[in-house]
Design a protein that fits this description.
13% strand; globular; two-stranded antiparallel ribbon; 428 residues; single chain
Length: 428
């Protein structure tokens, strides 16, 4: 393996090294390292505020910004710096945030364990163990942050070391044809779900912000790119996103041989927890009909990433699709109207409207983890990855929790690699 020092590769290596160094500092110095970090952040905001305060007199009125906001930023930075110097309050708040995230993670594991137990899926014990362990750690951090600070910083430090190593390794293998997919799928650390959840929506906002500048560009000219002239992908990953609501977190489908395969909680009458849990439904539909339906029906934007596959990868993916189909049975959605909301007349559920408009074929699972859908574990991304992973992708996290934002972040990085599977990207 010969390393080529491209900008993107070096950037990933530097990020990886800095993240690992940050993890080591947290393990060795804990509170003090965090206190210094808070000082640096407050100093930055303080001096930026001072600069903006004095430079505003040399700017046109429309570029000055709010004077009250600038003064508020300076005062807040000064107060936070003083509190950080005299008390442990800022550190305790950070520890409590770690605890809250651990409780959130415990909740995901607990719900996943219950669903696995309901559907008799094994192994499942690790989810119960994680639910108990993270729950106890999180509760302890919330109620006694001062006593738990060193333990929490140790945990976060170890996490940062693994995360940094993931970036460092990806940078080293940035220019290789396939890297080491076996190693990658066994050892992969992703950013926390809360940091990547809105990546699809943020990308949509960036495109819209550029279009509003009236430069004459379109969404396609901004986003549609191909590594090769007339490149034709063998498989597409479609990332859906809306400007608001739950759709802002995104949704993932795959398209193979002109047919979209999608998984989700499409039986609205089986849903619980506001649609977070429901009976898992898979549908297959013609790609062009589906794209047109999505744009009209849900006012969605679709980001498409095209992958090139060799014959061996195609056979593996086809075998996996056949395996999934073998544990499903056809399902007919009801035309029963949903309850009216906010004065809007009720209408049949999404899956029924989809079937009527596109002649989609819908299925429910007779077995496997996909019998029950859960938005934060057995979700659209997990099923897509269980298929695409046959081609050697490496996104699956060590815990098995993947969000659409995690997947899109991965696809963007893979597109930027010169020899990866991802060869095209486009927007609809």
């Amino acid at each position: 393996m010969k390393f080529k020092p491209t900008y993107s590769a070096i950037k990933m290596i530097v990020i990886g090294l800095l993240t690992m160094i940050g993890g080591v500092l947290l393990i060795l110095f804990g509170k003090e390292a965090t206190r210094h970090f808070i000082d640096w952040v407050t100093a930055y905001f303080f001096f930026v505020g001072i600069f903006n305060l004095f430079s505003r007199w040399f700017k046109p009125k429309e570029d000055r910004g709010s004077l009250l906001s600038t003064i508020g930023q300076i005062i807040f930075a000064f107060i936070l710096s003083a509190v950080n110097m005299l008390t442990d309050a800022p550190i305790n708040v950070i520890v409590m945030l770690f605890g809250a995230y651990q409780i959130f993670t415990a909740g995901i594991s607990a719900i996943t364990y219950v669903l696995y137990r309901k559907n008799d899926i094994k192994p499942r014990g690790r989810f119960l163990f994680d639910a108990i362990m993270y729950g106890l750690l999180g509760i302890s951090a919330l109620f006694s942050p001062s006593e738990d600070a060193e333990l929490q910083f140790l945990i976060v430090g170890i996490y940062l070391i693994f995360l940094g190593f993931t970036y460092f390794r990806d940078g080293l293998f940035f220019n290789t044809e396939a890297g080491h997919p076996e190693l990658k799928r066994k050892f992969k650390m992703n950013l926390p779900i809360v940091l990547v959840a809105l990546i699809p929506n943020n990308m949509l906002k960036k495109i819209n912000a550029t279009l509003q500048q009236e430069t004459g560009e379109t969404a396609s000219t901004l986003f549609d790119l191909s590594k090769e002239e007339n490149a034709t992908p063998d498989l597409e990953v479609l990332v859906h996103v809306t400007e608001s609501g739950f759709g802002a977190m995104g949704h993932v489908d795959i398209c193979y041989n002109g047919e979209v395969i999608s998984y989700g909680s499409y039986d609205t009458f089986s849903e619980k927890l506001g649609g977070a849990i429901g009976e898992g439904v898979l549908f297959k539909v013609d790609r062009d009909k589906y794209v047109d339906f999505c744009k009209v029906e849900s006012n969605k934007t679709l980001f498409s990433y095209g992958l090139r596959l060799n014959d061996e990868q195609k056979k593996a993916i086809e075998a996996r699709i056949a395996e999934i189909e073998s544990i499903t049975v056809p399902w007919q959605p009801t035309d029963k109207e949903l309850p009216a909301k906010e004065g809007v007349k009720g209408k049949p559920m999404y899956s029924y409207r989809l079937q009527q408009a596109t002649h989609a074929r819908l299925f429910k699972f007779t077995e496997s983890k996909f019998r029950s859908y859960f938005v934060l574990s057995t979700n659209c991304v997990l099923l897509a990855d269980s298929i695409i992973g046959q081609a050697g992708t490496d996104i699956l996290s060590m815990k098995g929790f993947i969000s659409p934002g995690t997947y899109q972040d991965y696809l963007e990085r893979e597109y930027n690699k010169p020899n990866s599977l991802v060869i095209t990207r486009s927007v609809y």
